[in-house]
Design goal:
alpha+beta, five-stranded antiparallel beta sheet, 12 strands, 21% helix
Length: 204
């Protein structure tokens, strides 16, 4: 996989945005599923939990509050539908009206990362056809822990994992993420095997 100047510039811009910042808070952004005509949320409740305690699913975004900025990560189609994009916002800047936000800073998983300095950032690139796109962000903190944000979806109550989706999965457990990626690869191989058999039988 060969990265172009556009890919390299994109990753460098993201790295400059993240590295050196201290995480002060983490907020999840989910779409408002039930809203009135004025956009007010009706009976808001979180939907981000999955069958795995170590991984959450977000249909839109995640925010990292720092000392003087907010780092905003969401799925996007800059390179292909869909990858990841990040923006740096002022603390008071309002991003949109269609999200419900959940402050998860006090959750046991995130507590060890609050107050930690971001020391490294990298993109795990993936390819589809002739396109290369940012599938996963890895954010490494001073205490040696990493946050993985990937443009992927995990089907409810099933071990069905799909990358390149308009959804985010967030975890600090890289082994779990690798296991889910392996499941997707098995799904693809199974599908291709059935397709090959169908072609042999029916010539289509």
């Amino acid at each position: 996989m060969t990265l172009t100047d556009q890919h390299i510039t994109y990753e460098n811009d993201c790295r400059q945005m993240f590295v050196g910042q201290i995480i002060r808070g983490i907020i999840y952004g989910e779409l408002k599923y039930f809203a009135d005509e004025e956009g007010n949320n009706i009976n808001p409740e979180p939907f981000y939990q999955t069958k795995y305690p170590d991984i959450d699913t977000l249909d839109h975004s995640i925010y990292f509050k720092t000392d003087n900025k907010t780092l905003y990560v969401f799925w996007d189609n800059t390179f292909v539908c869909y990858g990841l994009l990040s923006k740096q916002l002022d603390l008071t800047e309002k991003t949109n009206d269609y999200e419900q936000k959940w402050d998860v800073s006090s959750d046991s998983r995130w507590q060890p990362l609050i107050g930690q300095k971001i020391v490294d950032f990298k993109i795990l690139w993936a390819g589809t056809g002739t396109s290369i796109y940012p599938q996963t962000f890895e954010i490494k903190t001073q205490n040696g822990k990493s946050i993985f944000i990937t443009a992927s979806e995990l089907k409810d109550n099933e071990d069905e994992y799909y990358s390149q989706m308009d959804n985010l999965l967030v975890t600090t457990n890289y082994e779990l993420l690798q296991r889910l990626e392996n499941i997707e690869q098995q799904q693809i191989e199974k599908h291709n095997s059935k397709k090959t058999l169908w072609t042999k039988l029916f010539g289509q």
